[in-house]
Give the backbone structure.
Amino acid sequence: MYSVELGGVTKRYPGGGRDPVVALDDIDFAAEPGEFVAVVGPSGSGKSTLLNVLGLLDDPTSGRRLLSGTDVTALSVAERTAARKESIGFVFQDFHLLPTLTAVENVALPTAFDPGDESDRAVDLLDRFGLGDRLAHEPAELSGGQKQRVAIARSLINEPAVLLADEPTGNLDTDTGESILAEFERVKAEGVAVVAVTHDPLVERYADRVVELTDGVLAGSAAERRSMADEGTVAGAGEMMAPGEMTGPGGMIDPEQTTGGSE
């Protein structure tokens, strides 16, 4: 069973009187427990939209979305919020830490309205990420790498099945970026699926699999196969790749079969 899965997902936005803007076009995507998937592609290709749909921040126009095998395509706002809190953690390029809270308080923040006190778990997570001596420090007193570790710890406070990362190394130097990606290795070893959108080749080297999104079309998706067939590149969808060259639903490309370039 996949931790998160999209089947035939399309996302359109109003075009201001013109044709709708297609941000995602018939996307098939899935991530298994303990898998690290990097999503690459040029700016404006739909990567952020994909992350928002995966993270229940936005609904698909059509298609299906599942979390741990449960269909979460058409939830109410309250149901979507509950599912997101229970199953999904987020890590952002700019950390999104509250400047007046300590590291422990930032990590425990997602549980603020839950019964009980999760401060002990927050301390345990920070200690695990090597920040046991920074528990009472506010973000202004932390380095960029330390802030990102706090953000990762916060994303894990509710023990999610899926961790979604938006340019997680974008504001970090190479050495710090490598240390953060090593933390992702530890996270996935616990069975958490990690999906990161990125322009950073370093992230691609750490990922188990790299998929490329261009103009809302995921490499190996149904939309891409239709497009290639229409252009006469192949005689049919089944001739696009041999079965051994595919992995996952929708024939997503194995990183060994593609360069996975981000530009």
In short: Residues 125 and 262 are 32 Å apart (CA to CA). The longest helix spans residues 174-189. The chain is about 30% helix and 25% strand. The two ends are 32 Å apart (CA to CA).
